[in-house]
Amino acid sequence: MDLALALKTFSVIFLAELGDKTQLAILSIATSAHSRAPVFIGAALALVVTSLLAVLAGQGLSRIIPSALLERLVGLLFIAVGVWYLVGSK
């Protein structure tokens, strides 16, 4: 296993997820729950499943599209979504 890649992935996702709408939704659910464990388990499983889907999609797309091109396309899509949010928020 590539530990450096795992740590890089953890760091990027951890920083990206801090304070995002998913975390705020979990915070909201936890405030009204009698037990926090089911909230944590549900949120953790949801993140694991969505991450699995992303890994599988990335693996499948990398068989069709060269990885360098795929990285550029994903980067452009990320920028486009950011611009869309900025323009749409006015």
Can you describe what's shown?
The chain is mainly α. The protein has a domain of 62 residues. It contains four helices and no strands. The radius of gyration is 16 Å and the shape is extended. The mean pLDDT is 90.
Outline of the structure:
By secondary structure, the protein is mainly alpha-helical. The chain has a domain of 62 residues.
Write down the overall geometry: extended
Percentage of residues in strands = under 5%
The low-confidence parts are none
Using only C-alpha atoms, the radius of gyration works out to 16 Å
N-to-C order of helices and strands: HHHH
Q: Report the span from N to C terminus.
A: 46 Å
Kindly state the mean pLDDT as a whole number?
A: 90
Helix content: over 70%
Largest sheet: none
Number of helices: 4
Number of strands: 0
Structural class: mainly alpha
Quaternary form: single chain
What brief labels describe this structure?
90 residues; single chain; mainly alpha; 87% helix
List the helices and strands and how they pair.
Elements: H1 3-17, H2 21-32, H3 36-64, H4 67-88
